[in-house]
Each structure stands twice: as structure tokens, then as C-alpha cells.
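Final report, section 2: Outcomes. Of the targets proposed, G protein-coupled receptor 119 is the one most frequently requested by collaborating groups, and we therefore present its record in full.
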Amino acid sequence: MSTASWALGAILAVLASLIIAANVLVAIVLLCHIQKSGSKGLCFVLNLALADAMVGFTVMGLAMDELSQPFHPSQNFCILRMAFVTSSSAASILSLILVACDRHLAIRKPFHYFQLVTGLRVGVCLVGLWLVAATVGFLPVFVPRFQRVNNHWKCSFFNVFHPSYMLTMFCFGFFPALFLFLYLYCDMLKIASVHVQHILEVEQAGLGGGCPPPRATSDMKAMRTVALLIGCFTLSWLPFFITGVVQMVCSECFPYKVIENFFWLLGLGNSLLNPLLYSYWQRDVQLQLSQLAAGVKRRLLLHLGSARCFPGRDTKALPAVSCLELQD
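The predicted structure is given below as C-alpha cells.
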């Protein structure tokens, strides 16, 4: 095993482990919160966490391949493995679009939001999302002309897929999704700025009171959050797709190893940022996460206290009696 393969495998393994751990934790917290609040919009964020967790599981397989070098998989094995990687990544990107559409609708039509976002419509959107993601990822499996014939097989993006498939996915998949993503969030920024302008006009007229209204504070936070979301998504995936398209035209400009070992890892890092940006910053999810952590801590303390007071295997616990009372 070469040092480069071992280093890449170790990086992929650590990145995949962090992606899986963060998104599984967020998915559990979101599921508990959805059951309590009944919020349909959070189902899109939950789907985003599940898609990113699937990205982590598929990347873990690639990490094992790198750590198991020399490894000579068959052509069909590599195509299927990269199809799963592509499908999960496409599902993650499409989930970002659905989250953007949900928040855009909540701001555009706040009084009709709950009538428009029903359980049936959310389910139809999620089923359609996974169907589109599976179609995009497994298209080379059913269309042989999108497969790339290579004698030195390695399960990597550019060794498996033909440039025509990559160009099709870039031009008709990623870039339209990116433009839609940017449009929705920029329109949200426009709406938030209008709200802030109206609040400032009310304050200047002397009708706003002494302290700033909560709506102004929330709008300003939303504007900063949206700007950060756009920047993280663009910086994560745009270098990989741009260099991939340039590489098709000029093969000597960006070597495959540079794109796969650096820019692709940067794109995968977005699956680690998503649970932080879309879940940890929501106040309700933060509260649910703190309650979950407090519950785990309380159970651990009760278990440790029971073990100290009753070192035997007695199953009848007395939680109302403390250790000091027993000693007295």
C-alpha cells in the first residue's frame, strides 16, 4: 500500500465517520421534535440528514477500498458503488433545494403555509426527490455509453463515468440546481430586507417603542444565516464541478488526482456542514438536543449512583433513598 492511498483512505474514513455521527444524531433529534411539534417542514431537514448520512456510509466503502490496496474490483462493482455515491450526493443537494423552497414559501406566504405544506405533499416531494436522485446516480448503469472503459480499475468518479455523463450531469443537474438555490435564498434576502426597512420606518415614526422588535432581530439573523448557507454550499461543490468541466476540455489543466483527492473531498465536507448549518442553528432543535443530552447524563448518573449503593445484582432499585440516608 502506498503512502498516498493510506493517507487518502484515512482521511475518507475520518470524514465518513464524522458525517455519519453528526447526521444520525441530528436525525434522531429532528425525529423526536417532529413527533412533538408535528412540523411538516422539518421533514425536509430530516431527509437532508438521512441523505448526508447515506453519503457517509457510501464514502466509508471507498475508504475501505483505499485502505485495502492493492484492491482490484470488477467494472460492474465500481459502477454500482459510484452510482450509490452519486445518488446519495444528488439526494443531499436536492434536499437543500427542498429546504430552500420550504423556507421561501414560509416567508412568501406565511398565512397559507400550513394549508400548503401538508403531509401528503411533503411525502410526494420526498418520493420524487429520491426517484430523481436514483435516476441521476444509476443512469450509467442502464446506459452503457455513459460508462468509461479502463484497464486500471479503481473505484473513483473519473475512472468509472464517461465525460459525456459528467458533462450532462454538470450542465443539466448541478448548475440549474445551484442557480435555483441562489435565486430562492436571494429572494428570501430581499423579503427580509423589506421587512427590516418597514420596521425601521415604524421606529423612525416613534411607533416602535424603546427596544427593537423581535422581528427585526430575527430578520437580521436570517439574512446572515442565509448568506453563510449560500457561501458554504457554493464553496463546497463549485470548485469540484468547475474543475471537472475544465478537465474535459483541457486534460492537462487539472489532473484527475487533484480533483478527486482535494476538490471532491471539499464537496463531501458539505455533508458535514449541513447538520450544523440547518439543524444546530434552529432554536427548537437546539432545545431538543440539550434535553436529549440532559436525559442521557441523568441516566448515567442514576446508573452510577445505583452501582455504588447496590454493588450486587439486585433488580429492585430504590430511587427515593440516597446513599447518605442508607449510610445513616
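Residues 313-328 have pLDDT under 50 and may be disordered.
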